[in-house]
Every structure is written in structure tokens, then in C-alpha cells.
Amino acid sequence: MKNPFLLYGYKSPELFCDREIEVQKLINAIENGRNITLISLRRIGKTGLIKHLLYHINREKNIQNTLYLDIMSTTNLSDMVKEISTSLLLFERQRSKRFLENISELISGIKAKLSFNAITGAPELEFGYKSENESINDLNLLFSYIGSHKHPFIIAFDEFQQISTYPEKNVEAWFRKFSQEYPDIRFIFSGSSKHILETMFTNSSRPFYQSSEILYLNRINTNTYASFVHHHFTLGKKHIDIALIKEWLDILDNYTFYVQYFFNKVFAVNTRRYTHQILYDACYGILKERENIFINYRNLLTNNQFQLAKAIAKESGVEQPNAQVFIQKHKLPSASSVNTALSTLVNKEMIYYEKGLYKVYDHFFSLWLKSL
Questions:
Q1: Which residues are 318's β-sheet partners?
Q2: Is 112 helix (H, G, I), strand (E, B) or coil?
Q3: Which of 157, 182, 324, 342 has the least C-beta neighbours within 10 A?
């Protein structure tokens, strides 16, 4: 049996845990003509949820016109044009053997050259330099082409906050314009930068103000996740107590990526019956594998920053890092120094703030810090 605890990508509903309420909210928004913005911490499962949603609506709702776009690597509008164009090309290729005929006019319009990979045979687009005006014109053509399809189209932009870093002006206003001009295109905007996305969609001075419903993605319920993990161990003819699973879910703070990674490692252990020691050894092995990474983290931080991160990790989260009780307990410098270090750690995304607590973002790093 293949390891059922996926670390990347999406394979099937059977290997996807829960999110039933979130899926129904997303479907309700799509079916009723509302755009939706999905906000979560990094590695909590939003990309998997989007792909699970698209898998579901392709098969259950018979909505075939969908595009998933991860725009994290884009740095400007020209990159965005390339991302959308390439995804459209692959979409049309899967849909029809006559995809070249269908898309030839569009390719000509956006001044892209079509070629085929010498090894895979897959179609590829080559672009020359695009000025800002050319990129805007190309985006207009692309959205016009998508909007011309006879059936509703769903476009999911992952890491949508990236557009706020583009050097071109009024990028948000252009995308708001596209979302208004093509009512048959439903947009899913998602990202992991909570502050940027909230400001983008809730600030009255921004173009996207109140143009999208917001859905926050939280952790999976402990009982639900424990049942999922137990079920897959049972399918693999491996015995593990559900109480032991819950104990480690608590240690891992129910954080999706770290739960999946940990139980992927545990499942790979050559045994039929799991003990506390086997799971402890699996965790120890993960921390040893990553120790060089953690040491690099330490080398990149000042002593004040590292000591503050370690103190926060040892407390499993802190409400007031600048409180005297916390400072004295962990022998930290003055409150002003703690505030400076905290601000830097948050900006570097080493520390995050959630539901009243500051926590270390990399949970395995947090466990390693606790061991020091």
C-alpha cells in the first residue's frame, strides 16, 4: 500500500481529510455568483482544499471550465500573462484535439510564439518583453477569451497577495474591473498573508473593497483528523491507538503540513503495531534530519531574536512576549528589546500571531527549540 499521507499535491478525495463545511461554502458562493477569498496560514491546507473543490465540481457538479493558478513566483503583469496563457493552453489541450485551432487567434493576439517541448511534446508559449500597456491589453484579451465560453468558468488564484508586489500601478483596479466585466467567471482568491489580503478586500480605499466573500481556513478538528489517520493505518493493516494519534495531533498543534509529514514518516516504519517509543523516535529522526536547517535559522538571527523564539517555543505560544513575568522567566533583555526582536521575527515569518498567541511558524523548529 502506498503511503496515504500526502505532503504535496492532490490525488483523490480518499486521501483528503474533511473540509466538508468549507467545500460547501465555496460551492454555495460559486453557484450563487459570489467571488470568494480564502485566507489561511501557510501549509494549513488551502491549496489542497482548492484542488479538492475543483476535483469535486468537475465530477459532481459537471463544471469542467476551471483554472488553478499559483502566482507566487510571478513578479509583474507580464509574468501573470504567461501564467494564465500557459494554463489556458493546457486546459484547451485537454479539452479538445483541435486546441490549436481554438486558441490560435488568442495566441496571435497576445503575440506569443507556440512551440513544443522536444522531450515531452507538450505545447509551450514563448513571450517577448511586455510593456505595462501590452500586458494590460493581453490580460483583457485573456479574460475576454475565458468569458466567451458558453458555460461558467472558475479561476482560482493561489497566493493572490503577490499582485500587491507588482511594480505596475493599479493592478488591483484592473483585476477588479475584470471580475466585474465577466459575470460568468467566478474568482477564488486565496493566500497566506492575512494582513495583506484583509486590507485588500476590507479597506474602503482599495479597489477590491467588499467585492468578495471572505472564508478563513482553520485547523481540522482533532477527532476528525484522528479518525482519518486511524482509518488509513487500519487500511494498511497497521495498528495504532487513536489516543496515541490524538496525543501527537496535540503536540503538532493540528497543523496540517506537520501532521501529514509526521504520520507519513510514522507510516513508513516497518512495523504492524505502534508504540509511544516508535512515534517518539520518528519525531526525533525528523528533527535530526532538519537540524542543519535549524542551525542556519539560528545563524541568521541575532542572539535576542533567537532567545525570544526559543522562549516562545518553550511556552507553546505566548500572549504577551513583552510582559515582565515572561521576560524574567526566560532571562530576556528589556521589553523594548523584546518588542524590536518580535517585530523582526514576525516580518521574517519566523513568528506568527494567531488567536491571541504568538507562535513559532515552523512547528518542527519549535519542537527543536523546546529540546534545547
A1: 358
A2: strand
A3: 324
CB 205 within 8 A of CB 199: no
Amino acid letter for position 311? A
Report whether pLDDT(22) > 90.
yes
Residues forming a β-bridge with 123: 116
**pLDDT tens for residues 280-307?**
999 999 999 999 999 999 999 999 999 9
Residue 278 burial by Cβ neighbours in a 10 Å radius (0-12, 13-18, 19+)? middle
Long-range contacts of 142-149 (CB under 8 A, 24+ apart): 142/81, 142/84, 142/85, 142/88, 142/106, 142/110, 143/178, 143/181, 143/182, 143/185, 144/182, 145/88, 145/106, 146/67, 146/88, 146/182, 146/185, 147/181, 147/182, 147/184, 147/185, 149/65, 149/184
pLDDT, tens digit, 9 for 90 and up, residues 99-158: 777 777 788 888 888 877 777 777 778 887 778 888 999 999 999 999 988 888 999 999
Per residue in 51-69, pLDDT (tens digit) is 999 999 988 878 889 999 9
Gap between the Cα atoms of 307 and 344, Å rounded: 13
CA distance 26 to 116: 36
Distance CA 224, CA 83 (A): 36
The amino acid at residue 300 is L
